[in-house]
Amino acid sequence: MRAVVIGGGVAGLVAARRLAVGGADVVLLEASDRLGGRVAAAEVGGIVVDGGAESFAVRGGAVLALVQRLGLGADVVGPAGSAWVALADRTVPLPAGGLLGIPSSPLATDVRRVVDTRGSVRAYADRLLPLLKVGRYERLGPLVRGRMGDRVLERLVAPVVQNVYGADPDQVPVDAVAPGLNSAMTTAGTLSGAVLRLRAAAPPGSAAQTVVGGVHRVVEALVAEVAALGVDVRLGTPAIGVHPAPDDGPITVVTAREDLEAGRVVLAADGAAALGLLGDAAPDVARLPLPVPAASTAVLLRVDDRRLDAAPRGTGVLRAAGRDDVRATALTHATAKWPWLAERAGPGSHVLRLAYRGTEAVPDATVLADAAALLGIGRIDAVARADVRWSDSAPPLAPETRAIRAALARTRLPEGLALAGSWVAGTGLASVVAGAERAARL
Ligand SMILES: Cc1cc2nc3c(=O)[nH]c(=O)nc-3n(C[C@H](O)[C@H](O)[C@H](O)COP(=O)(O)OP(=O)(O)OC[C@H]3O[C@@H](n4cnc5c(N)ncnc54)[C@H](O)[C@@H]3O)c2cc1C
């Protein structure tokens, strides 16, 4: 049976691999001239690092299972240390033992350091408030505010959720970002108790891990594997139409050069491109409004500065609302976070990664001032800089994307057509890989 996979990001590569393992004759169409999508290597001052995704959540086990099947299991490592948060009035370590910034021990010293005693005492009221009922809080913001107060929400949860999901906790459904939290609350009776339970139930080790060398090695291994499985990879070949036949016959995928008929099609292009191709298969969904794309720039710096050897801000810093002297939304001290990278960079040499909203160029002076301010050191100079620009045409938690997904759930897609990718599966590689495996099995 012929299968066509549209889009050669992680979702498309995983789907192509799964279909080929199942015996299908697979064609993988990729619009650009490279595979991997938002997972890509970048080079700064002679050091190769991830320019896009740099870690994956262990949650659900899908990425770990994939990495093991690709022969990279022995190279999986966790970060060394944890991150800080840059508040308007101080920069402090994020408390240990939390979930999305929600503390499990509201009175702990590291929580007080961020929200002060009054914030801690208010958060402790969570332990005294009447038992929660299932489904009482649909959104994360109202849940945290109601149980633990504004300071926990604004100083801890919002910076983490903004950084990981690019979204305001008030807009984010609890189940989308913290699966299991609602039911754990019912059992535990409190929010902090639920966090404790989920933490205890999580696999040992840190929540996010990577592969020595970077996540882009997973893409390299996937590319090698799909080639070995005989997948016909066509770069620079966008799909321009997907036409289901009446009576569930083969689907026709149109490219500039030829039409391909297939019994199975996995549409793994990013949201806007995928919707543009659903005009025939799901016309009502394809007509729905798209969200504003989330554009961002990762600025990579190589810095030769011994002061950074001590990792003054752990693995990096998240900027909270109100910290207006800094434009970067986050800084990752990559050589502090990943010991294998520090070894490659050599003594005294460091890689920093600053995240900015939008894709317009940020002046060197701004980047260096941001890095110095976030790291709490007087002044910093860089040996090299590399910018990597990204755009997500349908951020998974944007209200429009969620409306599109809800409409899709009510729509019967033509036999043989399945959807994959972050816009349908959810933010991050854990969701993307699990979703692509499912789509290829349907
Ligand atoms: C800066 C950054 C940091 C991130 N960090 C993390 C992280 O640390 N951990 C984590 O889990 N996730 C992270 N993510 C998110 C993660 O990278 C993505 O969720 C994931 O890579 C999305 O994969 P995808 O296959 O769904 O989409 P994409 O990677 O966008 O792939 C879609 C592909 O489809 C192709 N395409 C589009 N239209 C067509 C067409 N008509 N025909 C053929 N091909 C087409 C595109 O060219 C692209 O290659 C990060 C993302 C960014 C941008």
Number of self-contained structural domains: 3
Q: How do the strands line up in the largest sheet?
A: 8-7-16-17-18-15-19
Which cofactors or ions or other ligands sit in this model? flavin-adenine dinucleotide
Distance between the termini: 14 Å
Q: Can you give the mean pLDDT?
A: 95
Mind summarizing the main beta sheet? 7 strands, mixed
Radius of gyration: 23 Å
What is the structural class? alpha/beta
Q: Which CATH architecture of the largest domain?
A: 3-Layer(bba) Sandwich
Classified by CATH, the class of the largest domain is Alpha Beta
- What is the count of helical runs? 17
CATH superfamily of the largest domain: FAD/NAD(P)-binding domain
Structural descriptors:
single chain, 442 residues, alpha/beta, 3 domains, seven-stranded mixed beta sheet, five-stranded parallel beta sheet, globular
Please explain how this structure is put together:
The structure is a single chain. The protein is α/β, with parallel strands linked by helices. It has three domains: 2-37 and 58-75 and 215-291 and 395-441, FAD/NAD(P)-binding domain, CATH 3.50.50.60; 94-201, protoporphyrinogen ix oxidase, domain 3, CATH 1.10.3110.10; 294-392, Polyamine Oxidase, Chain A, domain 2, CATH 3.90.660. It is built from 17 helices and 20 strands. It has helices spanning 10-21, 62-69, 109-124, 140-148, 150-165, 174-177, 181-188, 191-201, 216-228, 271-276, 283-286, 334-337, 339-345, 364-375, 399-409, 422-425, 429-441; strands spanning 2-6, 25-29, 41-44, 47-50, 56-57, 76-77, 84-86, 91-93, 208-211, 232-234, 241-243, 251-254, 259-262, 264-267, 294-304, 316-319, 330-333, 349-357, 384-392, 417-419. The strands form five sheets. A seven-stranded mixed sheet has the order 8-7-16-17-18-15-19, sandwiched between helices. A hairpin with a 2-residue loop joins strand 3 and strand 4 (47-50). Helix 1 runs parallel beside helix 17 and helix 4 packs antiparallel against helix 5 (150-165). The radius of gyration is 23 Å and the shape is globular. The two termini are 14 Å apart. The structure holds flavin-adenine dinucleotide. The site of flavin-adenine dinucleotide has 34 residues, from helix 1, strand 5, strand 15 and helix 17.
